[in-house]
Design brief:
The complex is a heterodimer of chains A (410) and B (69).
Chain A (H helix, E strand, L loop, with lengths): L3 H7 L26 H8 L14 H14 L3 E5 L2 H12 L5 E4 L5 H11 L5 E4 L5 H7 L4 E7 L11 H10 L4 E4 L4 H4 L9 E5 L13 E5 L12 H7 L3 H14 L5 H12 L1 H20 L6 E3 L9 H8 L6 E5 L3 H9 L5 E2 L9 E3 L11 H6 L6 E5 L5 H13 L2
Parallel strand pairs in A: 2-3, 2-4, 4-5, 5-6, 10-11
Antiparallel strand pairs in A: 1-7, 6-7, 8-9, 9-12, 11-12
Helix pairs in contact in A: 1-3, 1-11, 3-11, 4-10, 6-7, 9-10, 14-16
Chain B lengths: L1 E4 L2 E4 L6 H7 L8 E5 L2 E3 L14 E6 L7
Parallel strand pairs in B: 1-5
Antiparallel strand pairs in B: 1-2, 3-4, 3-5
Classes of the chains: A alpha/beta (410), B mainly beta (69).
């Protein structure tokens, strides 16, 4: 199997279903039984390829993980309950009190909140630098740095850094590079080829196939020697390249309890099978809409990496080929105009999600980033006159007609 | 010949590779398993070519999907 969709649809045959079901069913069972005490002992010790308890592993979830592993050509994958669970579980595994991580302040609002309001009080230091400037990233590294964290398309600023250049800095200093690639998925962006050591995905978005279920993924590309990281040195001696996934599965993820439900894994596996079709349509719709908005006099500015006017167009083309994602932002006169425009939309829904089948609109300033002061929001690149559009897979003419309707009201 | 897998003696045929041994132990995706051979970690790229020898002691550990602690 070579093609993305073929792999997504057929996956990896781990074990034939007991009833020859062609699709791995939802194993809605908390526990798994054993014939002998010795067998359950071996399963607990990790010496038997078997499940014991669904907070730790489950056949339906395992099937989903193995498909992702195949699609990302990675070492190991852990499916978790949300994208935020993926980030928090990973950082708790790699860093701790007194250590620091390097990231950009231009990241998803809840990720920023996790760093600032949840992890910082526990003693983790966060260093913010522009990820578009590898020199600044390098200058921020010190002996307590445990990872570099970036979004390969930032949300909602839509900044795109040169991932290979950041990777070179990370490798030079033997620090793992973690990238949230939710807006691209492995269909658009092969993170391993760009030097990313661990990829994070919110599978709630494109992968779930229509915003059906919440989920997240931690993908270890197998490119970093975990023995170099203080918290994983001992585990690395025991299990070598599996040190990250072993520490997660047997400790942090197990103890934090952020497991993906079998039902969600089933839905997301189903979504995965049509991922390429939906991403292609969402991206082509986005480019058409971005061009339409760019030519409308009521729109001050359009931000979409697919537009040649974007300062990130060239780096986006290098990294993503001819797919530029399904998110764009644009600016109107002021916040009131944004509300007026949004309230007039009929086909496009007002909701806080991205990469749904439906096109969704939101005013990030008054919603996702509302917990921050006006000055902080401006500093984060979130402006009061900016609208974010997550473009779905509807007929693009209907979407443009809806946008026209909204723009006529302002 | 006799070898040891996870502390238990197994009898296998000569020229058995690590991949074949994993499959006979119920593993369909060898890339998901950590293997220690006589106390040293064996890289997964060696599974296909490495043949198990008389008296070898192997530890298979499952971290991807299966095992629990």
């Amino acid at each position: 199997m070579k093609g993305f969709s073929t792999k997504a649809i057929h996956g990896v045959p781990i074990k034939k279903d007991a009833h020859n079901a062609l699709r791995i069913p939802v194993y809605d069972s908390v526990a798994f039984e054993y014939d002998t005490s010795r067998d359950i002992q071996l399963a607990f010790e990790g010496k038997k390829p078997a499940h014991t308890y669904s907070r730790i592993s489950n056949p339906t979830v395992e099937d989903f993980e193995q498909r992702i592993r195949l699609l990302s050509d990675s070492q190991a994958v852990l499916a978790v309950s949300s994208g935020m669970a993926a980030i928090s579980n990973l950082i708790l595994t790699l860093a701790g009190s007194g250590a620091n991580i390097i990231t950009s302040k231009h990241i998803f609002g809840n990720t920023l909140s996790l760093f600032e309001r949840t992890l910082k009080p526990w003693g983790l230091n966060i260093k913010y630098v522009p990820m578009t400037d590898p020199i600044k990233v390098e200058e921020a590294i010190d002996k307590e740095t445990r990872l570099i964290f970036l979004e390969n398309i930032t949300n909602p600023q839509l900044e795109i850094c040169d991932v290979k250049k950041i990777s070179q800095v990370a490798k030079q200093h033997e620090i793992p590079l973690v990238a949230d690639c939710t807006l691209t998925t492995p269909f658009i962006f092969k993170s391993k080829d760009f030097g990313v050591d661990v990829e994070i995905l919110s599978s709630t978005k494109y992968i779930s196939g229509g915003a059906s279920t919440v989920g997240g993924l931690i993908i270890d590309n197998g490119t970093y020697d975990w023995g170099k990281l203080p918290k994983l040195t001992e585990m690395s001696k025991k299990v070598g390249p599996f040190a990250l996934i072993a520490t997660l599965r047997r400790e942090v993820y197990r103890n934090m309890g952020a497991c993906l439900s079998p039902h969600n894994a089933y839905m997301q596996t189903l979504g995965l099978e049509t991922l390429s079709l939906r991403v292609e349509k969402s991206c082509s719709n986005s480019l058409r809409i971005a061009k339409f908005l760019e030519n409308n006099k009521k729109v001050n500015h359009v931000n979409y990496p697919g537009l040649e006017s974007s300062p990130f167009h060239d780096v986006a083309r290098q990294q993503f080929g001819h797919y530029f994602g399904g998110i764009l932002t644009f600016e109107l006169k002021n916040q009131e105009a944004c509300y007026q425009f949004m309230d007039a939309l009929v086909t496009i829904r007002r909701a806080t999600n991205i990469n749904d089948n439906k096109t969704l609109v939101i005013h990030p300033y008054s919603t996702i980033f509302s917990e921050y002061s006006a000055e902080k929001r401006e500093d984060l690149g979130v402006h009061e006159n900016t609208i974010r559009l997550s473009v779905g897979i509807e007929d693009v003419e209907d979407l443009i007609n809806d946008l026209k309707r909204g723009l006529e009201t302002i | 010949m006799k070898i040891e897998v996870n502390g238990e003696t197994q009898t296998i045929e000569d020229n058995t590779t690590v991949t074949a041994l994993l499959k006979s132990n119920g593993v369909n995706v060898p890339a998901m398993v950590s293997v220690q051979l006589n106390g040293s970690i064996l890289q997964s790229v060696e599974f296909e070519s490495r043949e198990v020898k008389e008296g070898d002691a192997l530890e298979f550990l499952y971290f991807v999907g299966g095992g629990a602690a």
